[in-house]
Amino acid sequence: MQPYAEIGFKLLDTVGPLSSLVLAPGIWNNFHYGTGTLVGPSDPKFWFESDLYAKLTATWWDVFSTGVTYTYYTSPNDSFGTYADVGLSVGLNDAKWLGDFALNPSLLFAFETQGEALASDGKRGIYMGLGVAPGYTFLADTPWPITVSAPITAGFSVKDYYTLNGHNQTWGYVSGGPLLTVPLKFVPADFGSWSLRAGVQFLVLNSNLRAVNTNDGFVPIGNIGITLTY
Fold first, then answer.
1. How far apart are CA 220 and CA 207, in angstroms?
2. Contact 203, 173 (CB under 8 A)
3. How many CA atoms are closer than 13 Å to the CA of 82, on its beta-carbon side?
4. How far is CA 133 from CA 83, 94, 151, 152, in A?
5. Residue 165's pLDDT band (boundaries 50, 70, 90)?
6. Predicted pLDDT at 204
7. Percent of the chain with pLDDT over 90
8. Counting Cβ atoms within 10 Å, is residue 198 exposed (0-12), middle (13-18) or buried (19+)?
9. What helix, strand, coil percent values describe the chain, rounded to 5?
10. Which of 19, 110, 213, 227 pairs as cysteine with 59 (C-beta 3.0–4.6 A)?
C-alpha cells in the first residue's frame, strides 16, 4: 500500500512565456509485506519507506515544463539508511503536435546530496531517468471515458549510482506496462475529482539491483488505487 499526498501552491500564472509556477510539497509512503529489504526490518515492521519532498515546477507556453525537486528518503523500519537528492527535470506535452499519438517525453537528473541510494561507499551518485507516457482515451464523449496509457521509464547511472561491492553499472532498470484510468463521475464535484486507476508494471533490473531484491531480475507488479484531486 502506497499512500501519498501533495499540495500545490500556484505562485505565478501567465507571465509572458511562463504559463505557471507551482510549489508543491508532498509525502509518499510504502507499507508492505515480504522480503527484499537491504537489512532486517525492525518496528514499525511494515512501514518500509516514507519520503518527504518539495518541488518547484515551471510550465512554459503551456507545453514545456522544468522543475527542481528536493527529496528526503527515510525508512521507518530501518530497511535502508536515510538519504536525500536534488532532482532536475524537464518534460514536454507534445499532444499539440502529435494529438492522440503524443509521447509526453521526460528527462530527470538526480544528484545525491546525503547518503547513498544503494551503496554506503561515500560516493555521491548521479541518476538519469528517461520516460515516455503514450496514451489514448476511449469513449471520450461518454460518462465513463477510459484512458489507457503505457508509461515507460529507464534508469541509468551517470556516476556511481548503481554501485554495489565497488562495481558500478550504467544501466539500472526499465519499467513499463499498461495503466487504465477511469473518472468516478458519480462522486459530486464538491468532493473533488476522483479516479480509479489500475494496471500492470513490468520491472527489469540489473544484476546489482537483483542482488538486493532476492535475485529477482524480472518483477511483474499489479496495482489498483484511487486518486483524489481537489
1. 17
2. yes
3. 6
4. 28, 11, 4, 6
5. confident
6. 96
7. 65
8. middle
9. 5, 55, 35
10. 19
b/e per residue 166-189 (b: at least 16 CB within 10 A) = eebbeebbbbbbebbbebeeeeee
For residue 120, the model assigns a pLDDT of 62
pLDDT at 52 > cutoff 80:
yes
Q: What is the DSSP letter of 61?
A: T
Please report, for the chain, the start and end positions of each structural domain, with discontinuous segments joined by +.
4-138+151-176
Burial of 95 (0-12, 13-18, 19+ CB in 10 A): middle
pTM of the predicted protein model:
0.86
Residue whose C-alpha cell is 526490518: 41
Tell me which residue of 49, 44, 56 sits closest to 27, measured CA to CA: 49
- Is residue 122 within 8 A of residue 83, CB to CB? The reply is no
Judge contact between 111 and 85, C-beta under 8 A: yes
Whether 95 shows a pLDDT value over 70: the answer reads yes
> What are the backbone dihedrals phi and psi of residue 202, each rounded to the nearest 5 degrees, phi first?
-110, 120
State the amino acid at position 183 in one-letter form.
P
When the pLDDT of each residue in the chain is averaged and rounded to a whole number, the result is 90
In this model, does residue 33 exceed pLDDT 90? Answer: no
Kindly report the backbone phi and psi dihedral angles of residue 86, in degrees, each rounded to the nearest multiple of 5, phi listed first: -115, 125
CA 125 to chain centre: 18
